[in-house]
Specification:
- Helices cover about 30% and strands about 20% of the residues.
- With about 425 residues, it is of the alpha+beta class.
- The chain has 11 helices and 18 strands.
- It has helices spanning about 20-30, 30-35, 85-95, 110-120, 135-145, 215-235, 255-260, 265-270, 315-340, 390-400, 420-430, and strands spanning about 50, 55-60, 150-155, 160-165, 175-180, 200, 210, 240-245, 270-275, 295-305, 305-310, 350-360, 360-365, 365, 370, 375-385, 410, 415.
- It has a 6-stranded mixed β-sheet with strand order 2-9-5-8-4-3. A 4-stranded antiparallel β-sheet has the order 12-16-10-17, with helices on one face.
- The two termini are about 25 Å apart.
- It is elongated and about 85 Å long.
- The chain folds into 2 domains: about 1-290 and about 420-430, Zn peptidases (Aminopeptidase); about 295-385, Alpha-Beta Plaits (2-Layer Sandwich).
- The model is unreliable at about 1-25 and about 30-100 (pLDDT under 50).
């Protein structure tokens, strides 16, 4: 997912099953009365943060259905399961979303078509470093046309197409839902596979072997087939639903989703919640993690009167910033000592790492060396575990790291999701 993913996979993520994802989407499309009925089930005290304009980004809700149809090999994607289970979960997804109009069970022919479409997608070699984006884009657009979805193909970087599909809601003023997946996959060694990694072979047990069957073409097809079932049932969402198929996730996502998030295209989509990938499971048992560290990107700014480089001044901008950096360094060391001593895991402490320093007056040859600047800034990447009250840290920042008494100010790039918001309540329902 690149830069947008705000939940670090190596730490503590709470992952829910596919059924939970369905409940979440169903609630996002539901009436206010239904939302109120679930209000009492909201988790108390769960702290979530999000970027301005993004509202909420969750990476842990994939645990997808089609990933149950994954690969098995020591060097391939690591899970496999009967194709029939794919059909069952597609029906679950569709029926839960369209709670007022249950979708009819697919015929045997429809079931075969679902698997065939999945295989066709898997057979497109989109492995890095030379993914066949042209063919995958054509495939996605053909599916979108069959579903009468609005389409848009954007290349922020030439040769890396990003496909956006839209199912307009009945109320265009409501914030939308974005279901994201990536089209590229990691490389594969043919000699290490029992079957061709882009053959999408189905064995006698109904297991599909292919690179990307789990990470994450499965999820993209899950979205498409769920939309197909919903449309067939006559369901009409209140909120607009977007599906994004992004390139280059396996190499960082900088030219795809990252640039989308920075664009007016994303801003105009008015996205309220994004669902992406998480941890897969070969059965109905999902690994449960108790929380995730919340990112907070902090920028501290110090100001002071400018002066000649030969003079000594009290409370200069640089001096004040140095005091803050030293205070933060001591705090960081105290947290790191807990990890080094084995008293806490890395995901259980507040981590603070400096990301940038900015000061000085530019000159044609570099910087003016005999002038003390009037402003200085430092940026920090802070990660806060769910067991820590964020207000505690904000108080420390205001009083010790960037006190106004030293002509300092700070900006937190994240802001809280209000507990009264619809998506917050639905997340509480899903995570219970």
């Amino acid at each position: 997912m690149g830069a947008l993913i705000k939940w670090e996979k190596k730490d503590v993520i709470r992952t829910v099953g596919f059924k939970g994802l369905c409940h979440l989407l169903k609630g996002c499309f539901s009436s206010s009365a239904r939302e109120k009925a679930h209000r009492r089930r909201v988790i108390a005290g769960w702290t979530l943060e999000s970027k301005k304009g993004l509202c909420l980004l969750i990476s842990s809700f994939r645990t997808s259905i089609l990933s149950l149809c994954g690969i098995y090999h020591r060097y391939g994607d690591s899970h496999c399961s009967p194709c029939q289970r794919v059909i069952v979960h597609l029906l679950l997804f569709s029926s839960l979303l369209s709670f007022t109009n249950p979708t009819p069970s697919p015929t045997q022919d429809e079931q075969s078509q679902i698997i065939s479409r999945f295989q066709e997608y898997l057979r497109i070699n989109t492995s890095q470093p030379s993914p066949n984006y042209k063919k995958s884009t054509q495939f996605i657009l053909s599916l979108a046309e069959s579903l009468s979805l609005e389409t848009q193909v954007i290349e922020f970087v030439q040769g890396k197409p990003l496909v956006i599909l839209k199912w307009p809601g009945s109320d265009l003023f409501l914030p939308s839902i974005l279901l994201n997946s990536h089209t590229d996959v990691v490389p594969s060694e043919r000699s290490k596979w029992d079957y061709h990694p882009f053959g999408a072979h189905i064995d006698e047990n109904g297991n599909i072997f292919a690179r990307g069957s789990q990470d994450m073409k499965c999820v993209g097809m899950q979205y498409m087939e769920a939309v197909r079932r919903l449309k067939a049932s006559g369901f009409q969402p209140k909120r607009s639903l977007y599906l994004s198929f992004v390139p280059d996730e396996e190499i960082g996502g900088h030219d795809g989703l990252e640039k989308l998030a920075q664009s007016d295209v994303f801003k105009n989509m008015n996205v309220d919640i994004v669902l992406d990938e998480g941890l897969a499971s070969p059965n109905e048992n999902y690994r449960l993690f108790y929380g995730e560290r919340m990112p907070w990107w902090l920028v501290i700014k110090a100001t002071g009167a400018p002066g000649h480089g030969a003079k000594l001044y009290d409370n200069s901008a640089i001096e004040n910033l140095f005091k803050s950096i030293e205070s933060i360094r001591r705090f960081r060391a105290s947290q790191f000592d807990l990890v080094k001593a084995g008293l806490k895991g890395e995901g259980e402490v507040i981590s603070v790492n400096m990301a940038f320093l900015k000061a000085g007056t530019p000159s044609p040859t570099g910087f003016v060396m005999n002038l003390q600047p009037s402003e200085a800034e430092a940026g920090f990447d802070i990660r806060i575990p769910p067991t820590v009250n964020a207000e505690f840290l904000e108080k420390r920042i205001a009083e010790e790291w960037a006190p106004a008494s030293r002509n300092m100010s700070f900006e937190g790039i994240m802001e809280s999701v209000e507990k009264g918001e619809v998506t917050w309540r639905l997340l509480g329902l899903v995570l219970m």
